[in-house]
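From: lab user (bench 3)
To: helpdesk
Subject: output format question, protein + guanosine-5'-diphosphate

Hello, I'm new to running complex predictions and I'm not sure whether the block I got back is the full result or only part of it. Here's what I submitted:
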Amino acid sequence: MNDLYNYGWNDHLYRQKQDSTFKAFMHGRISLTHKTRYEVIAADGRYTCELSGNMLYGRASAEQPCTGDWVIFQPMDAEKGVILDLLPRQQTLYRLKTGSVSEKQAIAAHVQKAFIVQSLDEHFSIRRMERFVVQVTAEQIEPVLVLTKTDLGFEKDKVEASLEHLSRRMAHFYTSIREPDTIVQLRASILPGESVVFAGMSGVGKSSLINALCGREILATSAISEATGKGRHTTTRREMVLMEGSGVLIDTPGMKLFGVTNDDEDNLSEVFDIRSFEGKCRFRDCQHINEEGCAVIEAVAEGELDRAIYENYLKLRKEARHFSSSVHEKRKREKSFARMVKEVKDLKGHPYKKP
Ligand code: GDP
Ligand code: ZN
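Helpdesk reply: Thanks, we reran it on our side. This is the complete output you should expect:
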């Protein structure tokens, strides 16, 4: 038996279920996505589900179910079922679909917080962290910075200084799986019923952290393959696990770098702290690239704004604009195709144009 309230079920979701044609069926939360199969946690157990025809076709890739989604399904037996509907999402983490410039793919749905995980070793990168923060905050998910592997030794002053523009506005934690106190502190920050997605490149210690937070071995870590020396073991499985009575953790194994999948420029200025300068630019529509009287460029010149931060801001803004123009182009193509189809149909129906 599962108490779905521990998994984040609430009255709001209940009301949304009542709007579905399929409201008479059971509901549950997807805990694992594996190609065309989904593991669904329901009140009376776990089901392996497939999608109904309606769910499978006629849905953009962004609207395909993902881990963390609440679904309505019909059990076929005690272990199998068919997913009939998806409850409306809130706070969902997306990434650019592999090989696409305009399509996004949901990674984790109904998450209130994202732990942006980075290891304090040679892979540490503030620029990557900024990218994750942009993607997460654009979806109104609360970002929390988690800096792992502190036991390897790092220069705290240097790290603190490089994080300052972010840590001013969001919580940050230092952790090591070898120092239980750090795990206890992180655990205390997760509220009951809250869902947390772990975002970060593979190898930064996400699975290890989830295991440590749960106090038991739940996810396979990369340590196994390091023994064989065959590079990193990455699994395509996504897992959602319940912490002892206090929250839901969602791993994103094999995570590649996010492409920006939104064009929220206000959010970008906010994350990069451009906001405090841009109001002072001479031109209202200043792009902060080479304009006269640009307060942002002045701030960079005077060392008030870190050049690397400014450059990453421009880079991600370019990506955001590219994404939104690709989406726009795609819509236009689809529209003109639809128009062409209609014209051909009209032509066929015309009495004088018949061959
Ligand atoms: P994931 O790919 O992000 O899930 O990373 P893993 O949890 O699989 O960890 C990658 C490697 O880093 C493994 O060899 C872990 O043992 C190691 N690791 C994880 N956390 C720590 C830590 O706090 N300290 C140290 N020294 N190693 C860690
Ligand atoms: Zn400007």
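A quick orientation on your result: Residues 307-349 form the longest helix (43 residues). Let us know if anything else is unclear.
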